Amino acid sequence: MSEIRDVIIIGSGPAGYTAAIYLGRAGLKPLVIAGALTPGGQLVNTTEVENFPGFPDGVLGPDLMEAMQRQAERFDAELVYDDVESVELDETIKTVRCNGGDVYRARAVIVATGSYYRHLDVPGEEEYAGKGVSYCATCDGFFFRGKPIVVVGGGDSAMEEAGFLSRFGSSVTLLHRRDQFRASRIMIDRTMENPAIDVMTNTVVASINGDGKAVTSVTVRDVNTGEERELDANGVFIAAGQIPQTAFLGGALTLDDHGYIVVAGAGTSTNVPGVFAAGDCADPVYQQAISAAGTGCRAAIDVQTYLESLAEEADA
Question: In terms of CATH, what superfamily is 119-238?
Answer without folding.
Answer: FAD/NAD(P)-binding domain (3.50.50.60)
